[in-house]
Amino acid sequence: MLRDSSEKQFIGRYSTFASVEKSLQDVIGVLMKNERLKRLLYYTDPKALALPKLTQQQAYGLLNHQILMVPRLNVEPDAKPYIVISLDNFIPQDGQTTFRSVQLSFDIVCNFEHWPLEDFQLRPYSIAGEIDAMVNRSHFFTGIANFIGAKQLILNDYIGGITLYYQIEAFGDDKKLHEDND
């Protein structure tokens, strides 16, 4: 099959976004291994950490409900706690085609009525602690995630939380674009 010259120039180049789906899959895989985190998201009871581990079906039910990849916030007053995972601020490294910096963020959102846990703990900060323990200084996207900050997140009179930010210097993870454009 003969290709025109514009396609030939495009073939074999690396794409900064070619591995986004794999990167998000890796992050979700790490989160789904944490039993404490799953209980904090599933149960709204102040004793959530003392309640039973989730069944496999309950755990899978968290995906696309309490653990989200689509940056859409559910601001319903009765919403369960949830996390929105985002990749943002893709910045290329000077003179490089495969090295870049990317920001990984977690919006942890919870109804204010569900914030209190036992022993003066607050659910969003407990969730943040679980995420930070798994992500900070860990390998993601062939780079190391470094915590760069957090900020409080207030959405309305019923819901608020915290956003965690991690900087990752990624390299060589993106795949070449396909020769076939099927």
Shape: globular
Radius of gyration: 19 Å
Mean pLDDT: 83
Proportion of residues in helical segments: 25-40%
Low-confidence stretches: 1-11, 177-182
Sketch the major β-sheet.
6 strands, mixed
Please provide the ordered H/E string of secondary-structure elements.
Answer: HHHHEEEHEEE
β-strand amount: 25-35%
From the N-terminal CA to the C-terminal CA, the straight-line distance is 13 Å
What is the number of E strands?
6
In the sheet with the most strands, the strands line up as 1-2-3-6-5-4
Helical/strand content category? alpha+beta
- Structure annotation, total helices: 5
Task: Describe what you observe in this structure.
- With 182 residues, this protein is an alpha+beta fold.
- It contains 5 helices and 6 strands.
- A 6-stranded mixed sheet has the order 1-2-3-6-5-4.
- Helix 3 (35-42) runs antiparallel to helix 5 (123-135).
- Residues 1-11 and 177-182 have low confidence and may be disordered.
